[in-house]
Design a protein that fits this description.
Number of domains: 2
CATH class of the largest domain: Mainly Alpha
Number of helices: 14
Radius of gyration: 32 Å
Largest sheet: 2 strands, antiparallel
Order of helices and strands: EEHHEEHHHHHHHHHHHH
CATH topology of the largest domain: MetI-like fold
CATH architecture of the largest domain: Orthogonal Bundle
Shape: globular
Number of strands: 4
InterPro entries: ABC_transporter_permease (IPR051393), MetI-like (IPR000515), MetI-like_sf (IPR035906)
Distance between the termini: 73 Å
CATH superfamily of the largest domain: MetI-like
Strand order of the largest sheet: 1-2
Strand content: under 5%
Family: Belongs to the binding-protein-dependent transport system permease family.
Membrane topology: Multi-pass membrane protein
Pfam families: BPD_transp_1
Subcellular location: Cell membrane
């Protein structure tokens, strides 16, 4: 007679034990990776990322920490930093009229230049978005100023265009407008820098074109069937569906405008003039650090800029809940 297989019964611990066997629990083979396998793979990844970690620590984190420390000291590069506590910050908001002027000037520049640049970029994107012959050439030409950036050569050339004998005066002379130096006049030099910022609208234009091409054509067709005109289509369809792209370009534009330095330094007289009309925030920081060698005070100016940018960015994100419309 064949012997029936022994029935499995649970032992006191709940593990199955075969009757007639040795009484030891039945061990099931473990399925999965070997112990420590994930850790070994992660460790290898961290080893390859070590140069990046060292670079971030040495070029970003350590300088940031040292700059924060210097903002509480009196340091002129020649001696040792002397701890002064909050004196630098008190002087910024209490005794330094040029600092307050640079803050107001930069805020005004951001409020004016950034929206005008985005408007120009959106207008160009609307013109270049539909497919037409030579589209790539037109896009490249419009993008070229943004590719050149606000470099030293571009800023010097821009100053020459608006100075005596420049191309702008030569053009206006054909309409009988008297020649003048736009860059040496405190009431006009700021607008020259704003014009330079608007001229470099290529980067946001490319992003706007990408956003416009993502809007379904069926939406415009449905609006046309309902009798919507161009203005209604633009305000009720294009702008709402493009609002995430507008928000993205706005945040980047504000951060970039707050750090404007080269155009203000070279289109003006190089010292924030004439009459402090080009004393932007970054120009004032540069003067305090490298002309007056007040490194501690300049570090305080830099950290206040970081705080202001954080507040402005936070306000933009807070208000975006009301006017930025995503897919839902």
């Amino acid at each position: 007679m064949s012997t029936l297989p022994a029935l499995a019964r649970p032992d006191a611990g709940g593990a199955p034990v075969r009757e007639g066997g040795s009484g030891s629990p039945e061990r099931r083979p473990r399925v999965g990776r070997r112990p420590g396998h994930d850790f070994t793979r992660s460790r290898s990844g961290y080893v390859f990322l070590t140069p990046w970690f060292v670079g971030v620590a040495g070029l970003v984190l350590v300088p940031l920490a040292f700059s924060l420390y210097l903002s509480f000291t009196d340091y002129n590069l020649l001696g040792s930093p002397e701890w002064v506590g909050l004196d630098n910050y008190r002087q910024l908001f209490g005794d330094d009229d040029r600092y307050l002027h640079s803050m107001r000037l930069t805020l005004g520049y951001v409020v004016v230049a950034v929206p005008l640049q985005l408007a120009a970029a959106l207008a160009a994107a609307l013109l270049l978005s539909p497919s037409r012959r030579g589209q790539g050439v037109y896009r490249a030409l419009f993008y070229l100023p943004s590719l050149l950036g606000a470099s030293v050569a571009v800023s010097i050339t821009w100053r020459a265009l608006f100075d005596y004998g420049g191309g702008v005066n030569s053009f206006l002379a054909t309409f009988g407008i008297e020649e003048r130096s736009w860059v040496n006049n405190p009431s006009t030099v700021l607008w020259v820098i704003v014009a330079l910022e608007i001229w470099r609208f290529g980067a946001p234009m490319v992003i706007f074109i990408a956003g416009l091409q993502q809007i379904p054509a069926e939406v415009y067709e449905a609006a046309a069937l309902d009798g919507a005109g161009p203005v209604t289509t633009f305000t009720r369809i294009t702008i709402p569906m493009l609002s995430p792209i507008i928000f993205f370009n706005l945040v980047l534009g504000v951060i970039s405008a707050f750090q404007t330095f080269t155009p203000a330094q070279l289109v003006g007289d190089g010292r924030g003039g004439p009459a402090d009309s080009t004393l932007f925030y970054a120009v004032n920081l540069y003067q305090q650090a490298f002309e007056y060698q007040r490194m501690g005070y300049a570090s305080a100016i830099a950290w206040v800029m970081l705080a202001v940018l954080a507040v402005v960015a936070g306000l933009l994100f807070w208000t975006s809940r009301r006017w930025v419309h995503y897919g839902d």
